[in-house]
């Protein structure tokens, strides 16, 4: 059973890569965009970046979904921006991530952080902007890309993550947090 979160800025390819992987692996797929309250969607559509207050309840909801699937023994892929380290902590640990001292969870080591494997879709702003230019019928205002990059805290050790770097249109996996069976399977499909 694997809990996987495909993360990155708007337009980095989370929905595309996440749903592709889920189909290939036969796992359940969730798109975090579908769980934003209307107020968040309206803000983003107006070109107003979300703040922590907007995102935290949304991340709690997503954490609950991941935990429900974990209990059911179901492998899942979640496409979710998860831009800040704190947001990723919430996905992994729910309310504990907000309530406890920020360093406390890290001291707990892998038991908490290892629950969810993040695939970070990294790519240059120009490439992502050019894709958003072409994307139609999506609520996200394109001018928010700048603030998405400003908010982004790329994952770093001891977080449990893989980076897929897009220098070209072909994703390249550049770093494995854990060289194990799961990452080999993912590498094969990306
Ligand atoms: N690897 C890729 N190569 C080319 N285009 C891509 C790639 N990944 C995504 N796209 C296109 O870029 C746009 C944004 O992708 P999307 O999956 O919606 O990103 P996100 O979910 O991160 O916002 C879509 O129009 C999608 O078709
Ligand atoms: O945290 C956020 O600011 C949002 O979640 C944002 O990062 C996300 O990307 C939007 O939901 C837009 O949807 P797309 O990612 O599909 O553009």
From TrEMBL:
What GO biological process terms does the UniProt entry carry, in alphabetical order? carbohydrate metabolic process
The pathway entry for this protein reads as: Carbohydrate acid metabolism; D-gluconate degradation
A single Gene Ontology CC annotation of this entry is:
cytoplasm
**One Pfam family linked to the record:** SKI
Reactions listed under catalytic activity: D-gluconate + ATP = 6-phospho-D-gluconate + ADP + H(+)
Gene3D superfamilies given in the database record? P-loop containing nucleotide triphosphate hydrolases
Q: What keywords is this UniProt entry annotated with?
A: ATP-binding, Kinase, Nucleotide-binding, Transferase
Q: Under which EC number(s) is this enzyme classified?
A: 2.7.1.12
In the UniProt record, the signal sequence range is none
* Molecular-function GO terms, alphabetical: ATP binding; gluconokinase activity
Q: Which family does it belong to?
A: Belongs to the gluconokinase GntK/GntV family.
Q: Which NCBIfam families match?
A: therm_gnt_kin
Q: List the protein's name.
A: Gluconokinase
Source organism per UniProt = Pelodiscus sinensis
In the UniProt record, the gene name given for this protein reads: IDNK
